[in-house]
Amino acid sequence: MKTGTVTIVGRPNVGKSTLLNALLKEKIAIISDKPQTTRTRILGVVHLADAQIVLLDTPGLHQAKDRLNQRMVRTAVETMREADLLYVMVEATAAPGPGDRFVIEQVREAISAGGRPAFLLINKVDLVSKPRVLPLIESYRTMMDWNEVVPLSAQTGLNVDRLLELTVKALPEGDPVYGEDVVTDQSMRTLAAEIIREKILQKTREEVPYSVAVEIDRFVEEGKLARIAATVLVEKESQKAIVIGKRGERLKAIGTYARIEMERLFGLKVFLELWVKVRPAWRQDELMLTELGY
Ligand SMILES: Nc1nc2c(ncn2[C@@H]2O[C@H](COP(=O)(O)OP(=O)(O)OP(=O)(O)O)[C@@H](O)[C@H]2O)c(=O)[nH]1
Ligand SMILES: [Mg+2]
């Protein structure tokens, strides 16, 4: 039996959480086309006949400006220290840029501190033609000694099974740490808050996605029903108006999509109440960040 921890790191938006969900065959991490979607470490467990893989998804590594983003980057850096193996994810759609070099710098430090192996994952190969991937592999190879280089598509699933095989080979022998039914360590409250945040990210633009946090005020299970009340925090009145939308239409749509997804995930009927509150500069407020679980 092989057992080990794999930390997924990379720039924001390269597809780390999409890969986590693909490997788990279950959606436990939210995804959006906006950078900085993931704000915390997310644990998922892959159970195979001959292995247990503990995956840790992380916030994107970047030059953080506010306190929230500093915490996110710190989380990603610290989570690398827990790994037996690192997945370092980049995109196939562009040559290595400053953001990728920043990631590789951080990875190099984590590796020299722990001597752990690293796989380079070139994601989104579905968007480019094969001949464009080869020079990319070459340029990344000159930057670091990778134990494996795997071009893949987290979205279509291309090469994801191959990645699993290579991963099992690279992990140490050991007994499983988690029970067979454990998929994630996130509570239903956290999952509910994240699902709501995902729907907001998908329906808003510009600075709004970065200014939103979701707090669960109440989560009560009554038989087959879950009564959930949540507050959406924003930083400005103008953002509140955007989240609510004309005659409350946007908030209503956000609530409907969130409820449908929660009902599917929890296997419960969900009654969801959403409120929007302005909390100026919460992203700079250390106490608030801790309270929100960041
Ligand atoms: N075409 C294509 N799109 C992908 C693939 N993987 C992810 N995406 C898209 O890329 C965007 C970002 O995906 P995420 O999984 O949220 O990226 P992330 O690296 O977790 O981002 P952060 O949490 O912000 O760091 C989403 O729009 C995904 O649908 C892929 O293999 N192919
Ligand atoms: Mg993510």
What would the average pLDDT be, to the nearest integer? 97
Fraction of residues in β-strands: 15-25%
Radius of gyration: 20 Å
Compressed to H and E, one letter per element, the order equals: EHEEHEHEHEHHEEHHEH
Number of strands: 9
> Helix/strand/pairing class, anyone?
alpha/beta
Q: Which small molecules are bound?
A: guanosine-5'-triphosphate, magnesium ion
Unreliable parts: none
Distance between the termini: 34 Å
Note down, in words, how this protein is organized.
- The chain is α/β, with parallel strands linked by helices and 294 residues long.
- The protein folds into 2 domains: 2-170, P-loop containing nucleotide triphosphate hydrolases (Rossmann fold, 3-Layer(aba) Sandwich), CATH 3.40.50.300; 188-291, GMP Synthetase, Chain A, domain 3 (2-Layer Sandwich).
- The protein contains 9 helices and 9 strands.
- The protein has helices at 16-24, 67-80, 98-114, 130-143, 160-170, 188-203, 237-244, 249-266, 286-291; strands at 2-10, 42-47, 51-57, 85-91, 118-123, 148-151, 213-222, 225-234, 269-278.
- Strands 2-3-1-4-5-6 form a 6-stranded mixed sheet, with helices on both faces.
- Helix 4 links the parallel strand 5 and strand 6 (148-151).
- Helix 6 packs antiparallel against helix 8.
- The protein is globular, with a radius of gyration of 20 Å.
- The protein binds guanosine-5'-triphosphate and magnesium ion.
- Magnesium ion (MG) binds at residues 16-17, 37-38.
